[in-house]
Amino acid sequence: MPPKSTSTFKLADVINQTNNSPFKMRIRDVGWHPDAAKNGNGGREELFIEEAIGRDKDGFLIPFGVPKSKGSSTNDVPFKEPTQPGDWEAFNRWILGGPVPDPAPDEPALTSLVRALAGACRRYNASLHRLRRLHYHVTHPQEKIFPPRNPHGDPALPPTGGKTLSQLVADAEDNWKTVVVPEMYNLLDNAQSYNGKEIRVIAVDMIEVNGYIVSMRVVAGGTGANGEIGGSSSHVSISSAFSSHSP
Fold it and tell me: CA-to-CA distance for 169 and 136, rounded, in angstroms?
């Protein structure tokens, strides 16, 4: 089901582009606050922030993982920070998750869905970087240091090859609006079929850094007792996060 528009205090305001900008899309300004909704007087109404719950192979609910590391008995101790430098990679998996599995015959539908979403995340990141790099060039042409060119889709700047800066901006905005965002909506909102098996996203948590998706946790399944969301879940990092072609 497509998301409905909702009021939130979590995001910054939407503002207009500067005068004479070749960009047509308005800007979501930077900023973050704890989430809340508007009350009847237009002020904050504090909210309980729900989570998606996965299930194990036997159908039992699995709460989302927390930071943990090995204790003196070599057992995992929740919320304990590592004491050995080599343990930090495993410790940080609660944030970044594990790698996206390699394709395999007859793999679970969830794995195929996660791989498709990972590809969509890479294209999302690449397209956003393309837009931001162009915007930086438009708004700060006098600067000496510019965002680096991503080899996966970024045009040369200043423009070469016959297209004007305005045309490059129009191409980038069109890619974002007609290709990248619709692809993501389709995967998030519609049932997908892999190897004859249908699966639908129930909930997804995208972990972002500066607006770029670096990892995600996907829950796909049904709604269990008491209305709790429960389904197969996977938590993976987005490798090659700005590539449009990596598996």
Answer: 11
> Are the beta carbons of 196 and 155 closer than 8 angstroms?
no
Q: Assign 223 a pLDDT band (cuts: 50, 70, 90).
A: very low
Q: Return d(Cα 100, Cα 114) in angstroms, integer.
A: 8
On the question of pLDDT at 89 being above 90, the answer is no
- Residue 79, Ramachandran bin (φ over 0: left; ψ between -120 and 50: alpha; else beta): left
If 0-12 CB within 10 Å is exposed, 13-18 middle and 19+ buried, where does residue 183 land? middle
Q: What is the mean pLDDT of residues 33-38?
A: 94
d(CA 230, CA 52): 7
Three-state DSSP string of 160-200: CCCCCHHHHHHHHHHHHHHHHHHHHHHHHHCCEEECCEEEC
Please check the confidence at residue 245 and state whether its pLDDT lies above 80: no
pTM (two decimals): 0.88
Two tokens at 103?
A: 């394709």
